[in-house]
Amino acid sequence: PRKGLPVHLRLILVSGKTQDFTFSPNDSATDIAKHVFENWPAGWEEERVSSPSILRLIFQGRFLHGNVTLGALKLPPGRTTVMHLVARETLPEPNSHGQRNREKTTESNCCLLL
């Protein structure tokens, strides 16, 4: 399969520090966490984590599950996409109540993307 265009990500830590990375559309959230962990930026020493398995990506306010690829997110090609990088042991469990609310807010979500 031919590789898509590289995806430019700007990762933001809770502390506000940022770093730009480039990934392939086939890279998953797990791949990204591992890459960042292995190539931890020099300026991020204070935020260093003990394991890549607790690094989570947040895109447009939602946690990305480990198997989600960048290609699946339909990111705009050639643009830098901003994501938040946080250290969390577990992801919040989606419950049926949350799902219902989320469907209702779909209209307002599209306005946030502007």
UniProtKB/TrEMBL annotation:
<keyword id="KW-0472">Membrane</keyword>
<keyword id="KW-0449">Lipoprotein</keyword>
<dbReference type="InterPro" id="IPR047977">
    <property type="entry name" value="UBL3_Ubl_met"/>
</dbReference>
<protein>
    <recommendedName>
        <fullName>Ubiquitin-like protein</fullName>
    </recommendedName>
</protein>
<dbReference type="InterPro" id="IPR039540">
    <property type="entry name" value="UBL3-like_ubiquitin_dom"/>
</dbReference>
<keyword id="KW-0488">Methylation</keyword>
<dbReference type="InterPro" id="IPR029071">
    <property type="entry name" value="Ubiquitin-like_domsf"/>
</dbReference>
<dbReference type="Pfam" id="PF13881">
    <property type="entry name" value="Rad60-SLD_2"/>
</dbReference>
<dbReference type="InterPro" id="IPR017000">
    <property type="entry name" value="MUB"/>
</dbReference>
<dbReference type="GO" id="GO:0005886">
    <property type="term" value="C:plasma membrane"/>
</dbReference>
<dbReference type="InterPro" id="IPR000626">
    <property type="entry name" value="Ubiquitin-like_dom"/>
</dbReference>
<keyword id="KW-1003">Cell membrane</keyword>
<keyword id="KW-0636">Prenylation</keyword>
<keyword id="KW-0564">Palmitate</keyword>
<dbReference type="InterPro" id="IPR040015">
    <property type="entry name" value="UBL3-like"/>
</dbReference>
<feature type="domain" description="Ubiquitin-like">
    <location>
        <begin position="7"/>
        <end position="85"/>
    </location>
</feature>
